[in-house]
TrEMBL record, chain A:
CDD domains from the UniProt entry: CheW
Family annotation (InterPro entries): CheW, CheW-like_dom_sf, CheW-lke_dom
CheW-like domain ranges (all copies): 12-152
Example GO BP: chemotaxis
Protein name (Swiss-Prot/TrEMBL): Chemotaxis protein CheW
Stored Pfam families: CheW
Gene Ontology CC: one annotated term: cytosol
Automatic annotation (TrEMBL), chain B:
Organism: Rhizobium fredii
Catalytic activity: ATP + protein L-histidine = ADP + protein N-phospho-L-histidine
This protein's name: Chemotaxis protein CheA
InterPro entries attached to this UniProt entry: Bact_Chemotaxis_CheA (IPR051315), CheA-like_dim (IPR004105), CheA-like_homodim_sf (IPR037006), CheW-like_dom_sf (IPR036061), CheW-lke_dom (IPR002545), HATPase_C_sf (IPR036890), HATPase_dom (IPR003594), His_kinase_dom (IPR005467)
PANTHER family for the chain: CHEMOTAXIS PROTEIN CHEA, SENSOR HISTIDINE KINASE CHEA
Length: 155, 766
């Protein structure tokens, strides 16, 4: 707790880094509720292709988004080795299917570089910046835009 | 705890008091003359008044006060609570409820109505009988009341030739009655020791009184005993006050508002025009005999307490032990005495009445607590989880356990039983008797009866039948509609009833009972029944049925549930806008219920509603569609059948119909319509569920297989996702997976060509 507090005062933040399709992304740790293993989802009718369906999260109905497909990459073929990041997006809770969680990063705001403007419109709507950590490039994403419900308002 | 919270509690209590008041009045209306019933009614109004006074809700206080005054006349046997009196009182109870609601929600009330009722109540209190039709002996109320009515209506012309506005009680509602000529009142104020015991002070009351006008006080010390025999805590003084004020009697009485229980108070108008002045102090302008209140139960029990105290004191002196120890001794003694009294009572078979009374007292004293609904809901959710978890555990044990006789299995069975029991008990917490809704209906009946000029009696049965709170809340609206319909359309006018050889007073019977895990509510009227010819003609006129359609009586009766159908000749204020019964049916169906009607010409109609006991769970048929598990609400399913190839007929390019007993019904592939598969499945391989939708149309829904029937806990999809067309909600099955609950109405609508696509373009997002 004190560690987090110290980071907050110095403008630092904690991020959870995860891998999807060989690329690395990270999200603010404060929006992550829990991380759990993949369980088969119930398909939803008329859902976009990246909506894998819904699972039971201790009695709540949790929609699962294939993060890879959401970013326009190859759709994932979920296995037991896949991981669901349960995240709070505004008032809702959603699950993101990712390949693996790789790291917890503590960075300061100055470490975050602006998104290069060569990125496609689509990716830019998620990306909030890039980080260079030990020679890797990690893309910081904002989850507010991930969910289709928000898409309508943005459009 | 801040003021608002206290106020909230007050309003909650008000609701209880109002319910108590209404049920008490209805009991009186049914001929109950038990003084305790009258007392209960009186207490209810008094508590509301007291609380409202503390919060400065003047409208409420003033109305409650007049109501209370009239009730007091009933209590002291000066007013016979006959039907007409009770009619006024029931209406007053309605207005009191309105005023309470207005005070809480800031709405407005029908002031003309409350003023009218205040007049009627005062007339009753003054011994005037409400309607000339009453032949009750007027002897009792008349004598004390006669001089009362006199001063008010007699116009007095004073020396300036100015005719004063006659002071009437109708005006007291406005806190400052306009232009009342100052008049002199003779007030006798004799406090009792209780007044001082409750922290009131005669001096303060007198000071308040002096603010009303010019006042001269005479202290009456006649009762003051010699110092030796004086009890320092008793009250001996009385005051005779002569007060010249322009505020009127009500203002004087309101000074004594909170002391009136504990004193003798006489307020009389003095002056030449008044016949009764100075003759005898007990002259009462309003029959408002406060001394009677002292004979009340609390007072006597207080006396008993005093006795106990005396005993305790004596013992303390005698034994020189600590007072506390003695008090506990006394308590023990009292308990033994009560126990022996009880054993005596059970020994004597004749005292069964006393026993019944004791039982009643016991049931009334069942302790209750108020709990936030949220907390209960959270508990219910958790227990739902527990049940699912337990089912999952059992399943995995069965899968892994090869010998099948292990102690784990036995333990699991016990666990299963326990979880079921926990679930049932938790559900029971939410269950509430339907009584409040039924009581509200009696008010609706009164109002409609008044408006239509019909005479109606509402009989309720099974009002203690319990059902989930959410169901109760949602039941009120359709029930109101149906009651209005029953009185407006169902019952005939008194003349017609007499002509048909019936009791001129119509009866509407509202019954609730449990039947096979559901609550069944019946609304029966003894009116003319459904005019089938008229209904049929109307249906033909409105193009609902073909002119030559061959319909059974039952089918004709059920036509009234169609949208835009009303048989009322003229559109009335009450019902008949054609939004009636179809709305009722839809709201009942939204509750997962069904509604039926049966009618006998000349004998009346019976509406039967069958509702689930709770909205948290649903009876569903678990089916498989394109490898997905879905749940179809059981209430929507009419029948299930295995289609034969010969019964399937192609219609148009892709439509198929199934013939069921020679009528053709469109076949809807659920998997196709939900986009679970690209091409329609072969109907012969699946099962058809014949469903009935809100529009009344039947459809055969094709599913691949039926897994079984089961109660499922409803889970919201919208909480974390969005609304999905064709899907009503989700649930979690025994294996821990989410299953979707089908929205049958939406599916049927979609099969009619309406789009089932969500408005937002999800495709674009992908």
């Amino acid at each position: 707790m004190t560690y987090v507090a110290k980071n907050l005062t110095t403008g630092g933040r904690e991020l959870i880094a995860f891998r999807v399709g060989g690329r690395e992304f990270c999200v603010n740790i404060m929006s992550v509720r829990e991380i759990r293993g993949w369980t088969p989802a119930t398909a939803m009718p008329h859902a976009p292709s990246y909506m894998l369906g819904v699972v039971n999260l201790r009695g709540a109905v949790l929609p699962i988004i294939d993060f890879s497909a959401r970013l326009g990459m190859k759709a994932a073929e979920p296995t037991v080795r896949h991981v669901i990041i349960v995240a709070q997006v505004k008032s809702q809770v959603v699950g993101l299917l990712v390949d693996a969680v790789s790291d917890i990063l503590t960075v300061s705001d100055t470490d975050i570089q602006p998104t290069p403007d060569i990125a496609s419109d689509f990716e830019r709507s998620f990306a909030r910046g890039v980080l260079a950590i030990e020679g890797r490039m990690i893309c910081l994403v904002e989850l507010d835009q991930v969910f289709p419900h928000e898409e309508r308002e943005a459009a | 705890m801040d003021m608002n919270e206290i106020k909230e509690i007050f309003f909650q209590e008000c609701e209880e008091q109002l319910a108590e008041l209404e049920s008490g009045l209805l009991r009186l209306n049914d001929g109950d003359r038990d003084p305790e019933t009258v007392n209960a009614v009186f207490r209810a109004v008094h508590s509301i008044k007291g609380g409202a006074g503390a919060f400065g809700l003047d409208d409420l206080v003033s109305f409650a006060h007049v109501f209370e005054t009239t009730l007091d006349c009933v209590r002291s046997n000066r007013l016979e609570p006959n039907q007409d009196v009770l009619k006024v009182m029931l209406k007053s109870a309605d207005v009191l409820a309105d005023l309470t609601n207005a005070a809480r929600d800031g709405g407005s009330v029908d002031e003309a109505r409350s003023r009218q009722l205040i007049k009627e109540l005062e007339a009753l209190a003054n011994g005037e009988l409400p309607q000339p039709a009453v032949s009750e002996p007027a002897a009792k109320p008349a004598p004390p009341a006669a001089p009362v009515a006199a001063p008010a209506p007699a116009p007095v012309v004073n020396e300036e030739g100015f005719q004063p506005v006659v002071f009437s009680f109708d005006d007291f509602e406005a806190s400052e009655p306009p232009a009342i000529e100052p008049s002199t009142f003779e007030i006798l104020f004799r406090p009792k020791s209780e007044l001082y015991a409750k922290g009131n002070d005669a001096t303060l009351l007198l000071r308040d009184l002096s603010r009303l006008g010019e006042m001269s006080i005479h202290c009456d010390m006649d009762e003051l005993p010699a110092l030796g025999s004086m009890n320092p805590e008793a009250a001996y003084f009385a005051w005779k006050i002569s007060l010249k004020t322009d505020k009127g009697e009500e203002a004087i009485r309101s000074v004594f508002e909170f002391a009136e229980w504990d004193c003798e108070l006489d307020v009389a108008l003095a002056g030449g025009d008044h016949t009764g002045t100075g003759e005898e102090p007990p002259m009462q302008p309003v029959p408002f005999d406060l001394s009677l209140l002292d004979d009340d139960v609390p007072a006597s029990s207080g006396a008993a307490e005093d006795e106990e105290q005396v005993v305790a004191q004596r013992e303390a002196r005698d034994d020189a032990v600590s007072a506390a120890a003695t008090a506990s001794n006394v308590l023990q003694m009292a308990q033994t005495a009560r126990a022996s009294a009880e054993s005596n009572r059970s020994a004597a078979p004749t005292s069964s009445a006393a026993q019944a009374a004791a039982q009643q007292a016991a049931s009334a004293a069942t302790p209750t607590i108020r709990v936030d609904l949220d907390r209960v809901d959270r508990l219910i959710n958790l227990v739902g989880e527990l049940v699912i978890n337990q089912a999952m555990l059992s399943q995995s044990v069965i899968e892994n356990d090869t010998n099948g006789t292990s102690s784990i299995n036995m333990g699991l069975e016990e666990l299963q039983q326990l979880t079921r029991e926990i679930q049932d008990s938790v559900m029971a917490i939410r269950a509430q008797p339907v009584k409040p809704v039924f009581q509200r209906m009696s008010r609706i009946v009164r109002e409609i009866a008044d408006m239509t000029g019909k005479s109606v009696r509402l009989v309720t049965e099974g009002e203690n039948t319990e059902v989930d709170k959410t169901v109760i809340d949602k039941l009120a609206e359709p029930l109101t509609h149906m009651i209005r319909n029953a009185v407006d359309h169902g019952l005939e006018t008194p003349e017609k009833r007499v002509a048909a050889g019936k009791n001129p007073e119509g009866t509407v019977r509202l019954t609730a009972k449990h039947r096979s895990g559901r609550i069944v509510i019946e609304l029966a009227d003894d009116g003319a029944g459904i005019n089938r010819e008229k209904v049929r003609q109307k249906a033909i006129d409105n193009d609902l049925i073909a002119a030559d359609a061959n319909l059974s009586d039952e089918e004709i009766d059920n036509l009234i549930f169609h949208a835009g159908f009303s048989t009322a000749d003229k559109i009335s204020d009450i019902s008949g806008r054609g939004v009636g019964m179809d709305v009722v049916k839809r709201s009942i169906q939204a509750l997962g219920g069904r509604i039926n009607i049966s009618s006998k010409p000349g004998q009346g109609s019976v509406f039967t509603m069958s509702l689930p006991l709770t909205l948290a769970v649903l009876d569903g048929m678990v089916v498989t569609v394109a490898n997905q598990t879905l749940v179809v609400p059981l209430t929507a399913i009419v029948e299930t059948l295995q289609p034969e190839a010969s019964a399937i007929h192609s219609f148009g390019a892709s439509q198929r119909l199934i013939s069921i007993r020679n009528s053709f019904c469109p076949l809807v592939d659920v998997g196709r319509i939900l986009n679970f598969r690209a091409i329609q499945a072969n109907p012969v391989d699946g099962v058809a569920l014949l469903v009935e939708s809100e529009g009344g149309g039947q459809r055969a829904l094709m599913v691949d297989a039926i897994q079984g029937q089961r109660q499922v806990v409803i889970k919201s999809l919208e909480a974390n996702y969005t609304h999905v067309p064709g899907i009503a909600a989700a649930t979690i099955l025994g294996d821990g997976r989410v299953a979707l609950i089908l929205d049958v109405d939406a599916i049927v609508a979609a099969s009619r060509g309406q789009t089932l696509k969500p408005e937002m373009s999800l495709a674009a997002a992908g």
